Amino acid sequence: MNTLNGAVTEFDWNFQSITPTHAGDVTGLYALGGDTDAGRPIDASFMTPMLQWQSSLRKAMSAVYFSMAGAGVGNLHVHGKVGQWAYPFAVRASEVSRASPGRGICESYLAFGFSNKEGAAFSIDAVEVATVASNNRRI
Fold this sequence. Notes:
Blueprint: E1 17-18, E2 22-25, E3 28-31, E4 36-37, E5 40-41, E6 45-47, E7 51-52, E8 59-70, E9 73-80, E10 84-90, E11 96-99, E12 109-116, E13 122-133
Antiparallel strand pairs: 1-2, 2-3, 4-5, 6-12, 7-12, 8-11, 8-13, 9-10, 9-12
């Protein structure tokens, strides 16, 4: 766990000691680094908590904006009480990328996330959800 920002990384190794550059176990000391995990792309993702976004009225999303650095293609993940949805989108060099969720999602509580594709590196600073609230539907 990164104690400065709370980020968690999970490994399937049985290290008893780890530093930013090395790890050790009963079999020896290992150097850490590289852009792959044993030759496989490093998959990464995050998810916001499930929140009631802005009001108790049911909402639809017009877009989700990621203030981020990266390249390639990413996936927007939307989790509601009823279902889960994923939408691929292009990560733009302008450092603000827009993902367009489906029009049929209309719930009060939603969580939003991002995952990389094929190990593409990324850094996210903010997530902004553009919502359109129903005029009268709360249930």
